[in-house]
Amino acid sequence: MAVNLDGYSTTILFSYTDLSVAPPALAGFSLAFREKTVTPFAMKGGGALDATDMHNVKMRTQAPKSLLSSDPMRCSVYYDPAILTSLTTQMLINFFIALRHPDASLWQFCGWIDDFEPTENKEGDNPLATLTLMPSHIRPTLGASDKARGSVEYVPQYFPGPFNLPARAV
Known about the structure:
Layout: E1 11-15, H1 24-27, E2 28-29, E3 33-39, E4 43-44, E5 48-50, E6 62-64, E7 69-70, E8 73-79, H2 83-90, E9 95-100, E10 106-118, E11 128-135, H3 144-149, E12 157-159
Antiparallel strand pairs: 1-2, 1-9, 3-8, 4-7, 5-6, 8-11, 9-10, 10-11, 10-12
């Protein structure tokens, strides 16, 4: 197992298409920003279920829950002020999001842009904003196989590197 020793360069791709089905050059769309820092989403078990009953003598017992949850992913991004026009059509829409790691591997999950919060603009600094991506774990489009299973759940998928994302013209 290889371990990334440096977080540079971690980037994001937004897509309406599952990257396991379509090449990223055809699937992705880009917004006019450049990642400064990226905090990947956290996966959590949601705490313990109380399994204590009247037969316990010394210890309270507990068990793990069955389902996982995810916290939002946050990024600090440099942005072009023209991004605000694109954001009005891209925010709050569930789509595929790919997080590309320095070793060119990536994690793909489903979610939406929940927040775009610019920081204070001042002389000598680039416009910076915090972008919050909310994992939904719901597949954006339902194919025939999903409808047959009755499933819309999408578990984050890992694609080992190298997985090259299209270059951005920003």
